[in-house]
Each structure stands twice: as structure tokens, then as C-alpha cells.
Amino acid sequence: MRRASAMSPSYGGQFEQMEIANIEHAFLTHIHSDHSGGLADLVLSPWVMGRDTELKLFGPKGLKDMVTKITEAYQLDIDYRLYGTQPANKKGFVSIVKEVEEGVIFKDANVTVTAFYNNHGDLKESFGYLFETEDKKIVFSGDTAISDNLKKYSKGVDILVHEVYSSEGYKSKTADWKIYHKAHHTSSIDLGVLAKELNPKTLVPSHILFWGASEDSVMKDIKLNFTGKVILAEDLLVIE
After folding, report:
1. Closest Cα partner for 225 from 195, 180, 202, 182?
2. What is the pTM of this model?
């Protein structure tokens, strides 16, 4: 939420949509802690900052139970804000959770969102998302090794945001971690091969596991096979 708020006018940014109180929808790829650890902040902070409608959450099985327990854990805080002197509404801390399966899971006047299963090792409840607007087709891979299903949903993609680990850094990992990462994630060399096949207008490597390697090293690996536009993901990045 702090990184999102930095993009809002209230905190020096330029996007009114990123005002904390305006954040009403979120799509979670899977329940691993490095992807869900900020969920309490997402549920509660926008409410404190003025969100007066329920948060709509979309994600894998288990998300509903996770959100219920987070809300219960903060019940003392919620009650204090509701019944103390602080102005507060009774909707903004409430979450409406949709546990998704593959297919269209959300649609409004601006965007259609399709969930698809990716290839995150043994974790079957793991998704990527396809976002389609009037002029853009954007795929967010989630955590995944090379996935035939992702390829199916990424045909004609404008922007492919895809996770990656450094092939150079991978060499420093122990044998057991090498087995894990190869099954759950995508190497920088393999990402270049994938991008060559899919040919996105813009490739955005994200969730980057450097393991001591440099940005140049990751880019060099990708460029071995993909000659298109590549922008490494970083906080507050805006892609036209």
C-alpha cells in the first residue's frame, strides 16, 4: 500500500486512481507468503484512508479463509475505529472474496480479467491473469516455470509481465534449491526462448531472483534469444 500510495497525488504521484481509498479490487496469484504478506494492509489501510465500499478480492482456493482470519485478527483495531472517535464506515474493511477457477472472473466497462492455471511446481492453486482492454492485452504470469497454458493465453499479447530468475545466480544455489527453483520458476535464458516464441510487444521480467547477478546479466541472458523490447520491472514503473 505504501508503494501504491507513492503513485497518488496525495503522496507526490500523478495517478488519482492510485489514491488508497480508490483501491477496490485485487487479484492474487497464489497464497505463498511473499505474495500475500501484505494482505492485511490491503484490507485495512484503504478503509482507514476512506474507502467506503467492500474490497473485492479474487484468488485461489484458501483465500477466503485467509481473509476471514486476517479480519478476525484485527477485530480489536476494527472495533476501536468503528466505535471510537475516529470517523469510520462499516463497509470499507469488509472483503468480498471470489475463489477463482480458470476462465473470465471479472468484467466491467474498462477491463476483462481472465484467470488461468500456470505451472508453479506442486502448488496447483496458482494462477496467471490476462487483462484485456480496448487497446491492450496484458498477461501477468504469476510465479511459474515454463507453462504451456500461459502460452495459450498469451497469443498476441502487448505486454507480458513474467517472473524470472538469473541463470547466472542459479549456479550458486545448492542442489536441493536448484531442484525447487527449476520446477517452480523460469530462468532468464528460458524466458528469452519463451519471449521469442510469444513475441510480446513489451516483455517485463518481474519477481526477479538475482542471487548476486546483475541486471545486465539477466538482460544479456534474455537477449540471447529475444530481440524485442525488454523493461526490467521495478517499483513505481509505468509502462505505456
Report:
1. 195
2. 0.96
